[in-house]
Amino acid sequence: MRTCHNLSWHDDFTGFLLQRGYLLYKNLFLKHHWGFAAQLTFNTLMSIIPIFAIIFAIGKGLGFESYVIAWCRRVFAAQPQVYEAIISLSQSYLQYTHAGIIIGVGLVLMLWSIMSLLMNIESTFCMIWDTDERPLKESLIYYTATIFIAPMAIIFCSIITMYSYSLFDYLPTIQYITSFMRGATGIVLPLCLLWVFFLMIYTIIPHTKVRIRHAWWPSLIAACLIMVLQMAYVHIQMVVTSYNLIYGSLAALPLFLLWLQISWYICIGCAELTHANQELALGGADSDVEYTISEVLAHCLVVLQHITDRQRDDRSPLRFTQLLRLTGYSPSELHRCLMRLEACGYVNPTTLKKSPHDPAFVLGHDSQNIRQEKVIERLMNTRINREHHREADEQTKRMIDGFCIKFLTTDGERSATVPPTAAQHNG
To answer: What is the dihedral of CA 261, 263, 269, 272, to 10 degrees?
Structure first.
């Protein structure tokens, strides 16, 4: 069933790049995933002050406010005006939150601003990976943990960076070597931190299992591009001095918005690259292949047969990744088959404790009562989404009533079945 062969970089490097280049082009331009960057840029701009406010609040509460400010200064080293504005506005925001008539309202608004951004980021990644979003309860747990763990991670990274630079004060000064080591540390250390940051984003945020081997080099590319963007931003500020004459004190805003949007372009582009690696490894690059009705029904029957055999053997339920290996179907085609079987009531999803991000599937009927002709009849007359449908007209109903589907039984004889109309079955 795998219609696309995943080329290895050491066997055919050109083909390796072309495969991923085509998938990037298809997803970013033909499916218009580039448009996510503009939306996330707006969401980030609206949430950036609450984000830094809560980072400063947690840092101050733990006694590490100076480290947070030092980290913020390094992040916006190329944008000193933005740095000063964020520090000032964040402190004002905290004072407003604590001094308001109803303190809880300010805190709720601050947390909602951050959670709204996190929800939009997760929604974007779920659309890239073509998966369902997390349940609300699970999302709230993830978002709350992120809000309180992220500032601690920032403080930890800031401490490591400052101590790394302070080590040079205890080393003997050697001409050229010491300055080179300082410069290398100033590039390599932030690059490694960015690499880990993007690696965590690409493997944790999508509501599916993403292996590190699929994400490590797209994460490295994203980290390198962000570093290049930072360096380019410094030179652009020096060259484009006319903005100061036009915008005055707001001169940093257009360039900051441009930097923010390009950063999201990089993040989304490398996320698509990670997704392309995963799809090619799983044989999912054929997701746009068109199948006949007979092939679709056969795919559903094959999936149901694997789940039935597993249950008859009294073994643990099959997980999505296991079904991928057993069937050889693309993730999107397997997902559609499971949705059809679930709509018919033959399959129910469940979650295993050992793999919460890899859904498992069990039978919704007694395996002894599952017959092929009944399964096909139900598949042909059940809608996946019953909420959005248009009632069939009388002519269509009469045509469906006249269908005669023949099945080959185990003894070699053929039996005819006339399925009921879709309206009768779903009514």
So the answer is: -100
